User: Fold these one by one.
Assistant:
Number 1:
Amino acid sequence: MRVSLRSHRQLAVLGFVGMLGIGGAAFAASNTVPTSNAGSGTSVVSGYVVSDVAYAPDVDMTEVGTITFAIVRTSSGIAVADLNAEVNVSVDGGTTWKTCTVVAGAATCDFTGDGVTFDSVDTLDVVAYDI
């Protein structure tokens, strides 16, 4: 049996149209997502306000021991805590992340023993989201 080039083209077009239809249905599907806060940034964090950032040295005074800051939700002003949100920071442009402990809006991020020197810290990236 011999199949013409035209049949191959028609089959290819039909297959492509079918894939578009399936893909369109996938994108049209609806999801219900509960209202929550999430944000990421280096100075302005959407969903949260970060303030009073402080760096404390490790035993080696050239290395970062802890980073602390205050964090509250912008929508409600409610202080963030480990029970209702997760807060992570990066000091190397997002290559590595530290999970911070948060109590009554006071975040503490422990870098003790990690060898992060003060002169290597160019930015403080904060990622926070409701849990």
Number 2:
Amino acid sequence: MVPSGNHPTPGPSMPPMPLINLVFNKPAFQRGVIQGKGPYLAVDGDKERENSIFTEIRGWWKVDLEAMASISRIVIYNSDHPWHLRNAYILVLDNNFEVTAGYHIIEYNHDVIEIDFSGEYIEGRYVKISIWEW
């Protein structure tokens, strides 16, 4: 997963800053581990590796950005089984675990999911993906 953004927000006289991978090597957590595939596999920069973080209903995965950050988009590389993210919720949470933005994936069968906040920056510290049912 690659929430990306930059900080500070460029002003009128500043050129746009390149987007950076905010989750690279950040602490990640998930409900359950299967076949030794832990949550860190989603933040190690390898977009091709299967990490099987969603193996159960009501499963979840979360990354801690370790500080509030400005997020302009979220990209999820879903290389193992695209249907695993059907009926998933992607949430951006602040320091107090309050939702600052959310997105519901009802039906999705692609390898890459991109959530673009239309040029806006969403402030958050955590990004969480939850599966409610298949």
